[in-house]
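Example 530.
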Amino acid sequence: MDTGTDRPAPVQPATGIRKPVRLRDVEVNRRRLLRDGLGAGAALTLGAAVRSLPVPEATAAKPRAPHALGFRSLTDEVRLPDVPVDGRVPRWLSGVLLRNGPGLFEIGETKLNHWFDGLAMLHAFAFADGRVSYANRFLQSSAYKAYRREGIMKYSEFGTDPCRAIFSGVSTLPLMGKIPNANVSIEHLAGEFRAHTELPVPVSFDPRSLKTLGVDVPLPNGRMGTAHPHYDPRTRERFSYELELIPPSGLRVIAEKRGNRRELAFIPQDRPGYLHSFGLTRRWVVVFAQPWEFDLATFLGPDSGPIVKSFQWDDSKPSRIMLIDRRAGGVGAEFEVDPAFAFHHINAFDDGDSVVFDVCAHRDASVVDALYLKNLRKPGPKVPQASPRRMTVKPGSSRVRVRELAEGNLELPRTDYASVNGRPYRYAYGVGVRNPRRSGFVDRIAKLDVKRGEQTHWQERGTYPGEPIFVRRPHAKREDDGLLLSVVLDAGRRTSFLLVLDARDMSEIARASVPHHIPFGFHGVHAADA
Ligand code: CO
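Predicted structure in complex with cobalt (II) ion:
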């Protein structure tokens, strides 16, 4: 482990991933473990069972792409009531860390193409009196249930279309199931937990048993949604958007309060621009619309393929910043800026008449192609990195001030959301790549100090961390007085562990190791009361 101030590191592609290992189904008798394994020795029992499995030949020798293990399926569902802990997990840490991400990268004979396609698996690390337990379970999406029932891929995913795979060349619209493969994020609102993907239908689940509870509404045709809705506890409003792909196409911004839904704006777009998140200040919804645009003709054409193929980058067009008035509705101001691509907003706030918003900015949408599994697993893949970037706009002026918040790259950004979202803030946390020229994948946890304009890191050789979740210490006064929780792949041991860092200085407090690998996920949430 080392921490230190970041050195200047230009945005460069990553390298070094090797061919994946063919997965072998892991035969652990889950029922027996559940029945017999509820004592203190359960974790050891399971650990022994998993470790005794044959090691695939390709990885028995020193693998050149150790992190490719994070793109390998995890087929087992387990419950480990007592996960061994190195260090001391603070006793005040309660509740559960819930994580979402792909768990299965093959469906029967079909190998999924893109990281975003994998079938959703939920993971739960629960805390009580310094002890840690773990459970994981597949989300019972229509895709997963069809796979279990028929052994085949029946529904379209972002980068894999089963119809094209089975009936190559036959024109067809994406086939969607009733329950989406919601593998991206988790929303915790009013005691409910819902898994999201980029469709406007979240999937409810129980945070302790991880049992899928289902969906409230049917999936509308040709409509995308956000995996990153916002909630303002001050006004008790939830904000989200929908992207209509079929004419009349465009972006709809929505506010909901106590079940009442209000359309704040509908922005017509002939070629709707892809969005993954947005910003929220006290006054505005901030949309950063990028010229990665949906082409209907391609989508309806005979060779449409999965939906990702219908989005096209057009760098002759600017990115657009739109401010939507939270109270009055409508677009209050619009700005143009050089084209850039962002999955994630970090934070946004009003600064007098100006609006400040920070994003993880990519040069263009090529990062989406870089996240194909074939690329991520092969030697020398190129994965463009994002810079933490601040944009400041002022209604009445067309000028956009743009600056980088710090040197180095940052993705999967988090803040102490409840305390600082929509307000001036100092700290954000995320993941990064130490040396984008050499590293195969995300290999460090970053803390961004907006005030000082620098990043500090936690990193350890041979480990690959996921999104860090900030948990505020009770009665904390400093913004960064709390913990960071991150699920880290230990490639050397072929296992994963939950890492607990002190967010103030990025030092390790504890780690709780499970006896199997956890595939790289996207987002999660900590719920103190679950
Ligand atoms: Co996201």
